[in-house]
Amino acid sequence: MKYNFRLNNIMLALTFVTIVFMPPSIIGGIMGMNVVVPGMVTDENAEDPGSLVPFWIVISLIGFLMLVSAVIMTLLSR
After folding, report:
1. Torsion of CA 12, 18, 24, 25, to 10 degrees
2. What tens digit of pLDDT does each residue of 12-33 get?
């Protein structure tokens, strides 16, 4: 019985880590492809590479999803 409780706690921790890091990995994988990001300059020879606003929006989205996932898993583990 004691081992079952310990195994449940280990699985809860592993699930927590997976859920927290999965959304940023998916978003990072998609954004890491060689695709045109909305708001960036598409001309390769341009002097100005474009605004960094889309980059910071994606970074903020990743941070927000990690925070929400952590809060949800903390509430569910009680």
Report:
1. 180
2. 888 888 888 887 888 778 777 6
Q: Distance between alpha carbon 10 and the CA centroid of its chain, in Å?
A: 22
Q: Which two tokens stand for residue 30?
A: 């998609």
**Residue carrying the six token digits 């859920």:** 19
**CA 39/CA 57 separation, integer angstroms:** 11
Give me 16's structure tokens: 């927590």
Contact (Cβ atoms closer than 8 angstroms) between residue 12 and residue 69: no
pTM of the predicted model as reported, rounded to 2 decimal places: 0.55
> How far is residue 11's CA from residue 19's CA, in Å, rounded to a whole number?
12
